[in-house]
Amino acid sequence: MYKNRVYLLFAAAALVSAAGAAASEFSSLEERMSQAEFHGAGLDKLKPEELKALNDWLRAHYTAPAPVYVTPEGQPTFYDTEAKREVIETKIDGTFTGWYGHTVFTFENGQEWTQNESGSFSAGKYDHPDVKIKPMLLGSWLLYIEPCGCSVRVKRTK
């Protein structure tokens, strides 16, 4: 049991160290990883206090590298490369029921973002839910839908 937790700690630290982060503020493993990655790493088996201890350790030992301002495909992003990437808070323009492979999300602020990871998730039905779009690893973004507490990686398309 102890070996498994040590392994999880080193695996999580290696993930953070190897990938780096685009934002200078720390974000937890739950925010950095998709639900499938979090489950696949076995982190969902940790008690809340163990997960908090792991996140606290990562926060204390984390150093952010220089941010990346292009997508993994080499395409420029939609923001000024001199500006700091910041959390975007808005609402989905319409009803949210989940994502299904290549879902396009349209927001009340006029932006459009597309699902940028595989998989699907059925979330029930939410009318104009509050969302946050957070800068994540290597120039990626995480869409967090507040009412359902779910998140998916996205890329800006408009």
Question: How would you describe the overall organization of this protein?
Answer:
The protein is α+β, with helices and mostly antiparallel strands. Helices cover 27% and strands 27% of the residues. The chain has a six-stranded antiparallel sheet with strand order 1-6-7-8-4-3, with no helix packed on it. The radius of gyration is 16 Å and the shape is globular.
Give a quick rundown of the structure.
The protein is α+β, with helices and mostly antiparallel strands and 158 residues long. The chain has helices spanning 2-19, 29-32, 35-40, 48-61; strands at residues 88-91, 95-100, 104-106, 112-115, 120-127, 130-135, 141-145, 150-156.
Specify the number of helices: 4
Mean pLDDT: 77
Class by alpha and beta content: alpha+beta
SSE topology string: HHHHEEEEEEEE
- Main beta-sheet annotation: 6 strands, antiparallel
Rg result: 16 Å
Helix content: 25-40%
